[in-house]
Amino acid sequence: MEVIAEFLAGVDDPLHRERTEEVLTWINNKYPNLKIEIKWNQPMFTDHGTFIIGFSISKKHLAVSPESVTITHVEDDIVKAGYDYTKELIRIPWNSPFEYSLLEKMIEFNIWDKANCPTFWRK
């Protein structure tokens, strides 16, 4: 988690930093086989060199980016959770509960769906 500690040190708002650390730590503990990386100044998790899920921080939300195929796969769950989303990312307001079951569903899907993916992004 050293890579993440350096990233988190650059997050000014202590509440944003704490929430982001909580989410990233949860993933790291639940999926120790995933590699934590910082690319494009964003924390992300990869598996055998392929992207699984990434995050970015904004003033109003934590953005979760699992790739558009995955968003389509979990779209009903996103709507049920009440999160705003686009075809590429889900916006989770800082003051909203974090739906770890949704996060787990996205990660599990990407690990399964990209098990034989030889590239970083889906083609």
Stretches where pLDDT falls below 50 for ≥5 residues? none
> What is the fold named in CATH at topology level?
Aspartate Aminotransferase, domain 1
> Regarding CATH, which class?
Alpha Beta
Structural class: alpha+beta
Please characterize this protein's 3D structure:
The chain contains 5 helices and 6 strands. Helix 1 runs antiparallel to helix 2 (14-30). It has a 6-stranded antiparallel beta sheet with strand order 1-2-3-4-6-5. The chain is globular, with a radius of gyration of 14 Å. The longest helix is centred in the N-terminal third of the chain and has 17 residues, at 14-30. It has helices at 2-9, 14-30, 68-73, 75-81, 100-113, and strands at 35-39, 42-47, 50-57, 61-65, 84-85, 90-93. 42% of the residues lie in helices and 24% in strands. It has a single domain, classed as Aspartate Aminotransferase, domain 1. With 123 residues, it is α+β, with helices and mostly antiparallel strands.
